[in-house]
Design a protein that fits this description.
This protein is mainly alpha-helical and 295 residues long. The protein is globular. Keywords: Cell membrane, Membrane, Transmembrane, Transmembrane helix. InterPro entries: TM_pro_TauE-like (IPR002781), TSUP/Inactive_protease-like (IPR051598).
């Protein structure tokens, strides 16, 4: 019963972060499952099956609150779905023990990138709109993000959201809402790929239902809070969590001496704390600068 409550809570937090940041549901959930010894293909399949429901709830909520660019959703869905389906089939053919360290390395890289993204690249101005994204730009983005999302259990949001934010033609809230809404098709395509390659009997329904339950509750809350939460601080927090848990997976996979664990964990926690402090300081500086400009 305690484990059930814990993982419902994890699903809730993962969806709350994802709905507010436009990323991290798959990365956070897959990281957790890998930590508990679930095979990469099974973990990714379970997360994507849960995401079929949670992303539908999240997309509907973002749509209701006006956080979605409908034209952009349509442009992202097709290449993203193709990439996710191919990625799912590719991952399913690889031995779990062989691919697990590489998936953790991928997730670890995303963790560092998420921290960098929200610590140093969060202050982009929307005052000078750039040209709208073309199909020639969105097709490779969708293919790459969909493929890496299926193979890593996360990647659609961490890749698509920062890339779309680099173009100043969309509001941040609409980037997040658009990425979350289009993710329904990506999760569905990846799930179909895993079902064909693995079979439904390989899906861990316990993980699916617990993650799903927490995500459904969090989806409308996240869509409402998308304008309120300090996204850069949440980004730093979730990035640090992903780094910490994936380093643990890699230390076990590489059979590193147990005496090294404490030193490695200590360095990560200190770096994480410093990043949080910088995020808070940047937030305060931003408020002071805004106040001076207003006066």
């Amino acid at each position: 019963m305690k484990k059930w409550i814990v993982f419902v809570f994890v699903g809730f937090i993962a969806q709350l972060i994802d709905g507010s940041l436009g990323m991290a549901y798959g990365v956070t959930s897959t990281t957790l499952l890998l930590t508990f010894g679930i095979a990469p293909a099974v973990a990714s399949a379970s997360v994507h099956l849960a995401e079929v429901v949670t992303t539908a709830a999240s997309g509907a909520s973002h749509w209701k609150f006006g956080n979605v660019d409908r034209a952009m959703v349509v442009k992202l869905i097709i290449p993203g779905s193709v990439g996710a389906f191919v990625g799912a089939c590719f991952l399913s053919k690889l031995p779990g023990d062989l691919i697990k360290p590489y998936i953790s390395l991928f997730l670890l890289t995303l963790g560092f990138y998420i921290i960098y993204r929200f610590l140093f690249l969060n202050g982009r101005s929307l005052s000078k709109p750039e040209k709208q994204w073309s199909n020639r730009q969105l097709i490779p983005l969708g293919l790459a993000a969909g493929f890496l999302d299926a193979t890593g259990g996360g990647g659609w949001g961490p890749i698509a959201t920062p890339v779309l934010l680099a173009n100043k033609s969309m509001e941040t809230r609409k980037v997040i809402g658009t990425v979350d809404t289009s993710e329904f098709a990506i999760a569905l395509s990846a799930t179909l790929g895993f079902a064909i390659s693995l079979g439904w009997e390989q899906v861990d329904w316990y993980w699916v239902l617990t993650l799903m339950a927490g995500g459904i509750v969090a989806a409308p809350i996240a869509a409402w809070l998308v304008r309120k939460l300090p996204s850069h601080l949440l980004g730093v927090l979730v990035g640090g969590l992903i780094i910490l848990t994936n380093v643990r997976t890699l230390l076990h996979a590489w059979e590193v001496s147990a005496s090294v664990y404490s030193a490695v964990y200590g360095l990560i926690v200190m770096g994480w704390a410093a990043a949080v402090w910088l995020a808070i300081r940047n937030r305060r500086k931003g408020k002071v600068a805004s106040g001076e400009m207003a006066s």
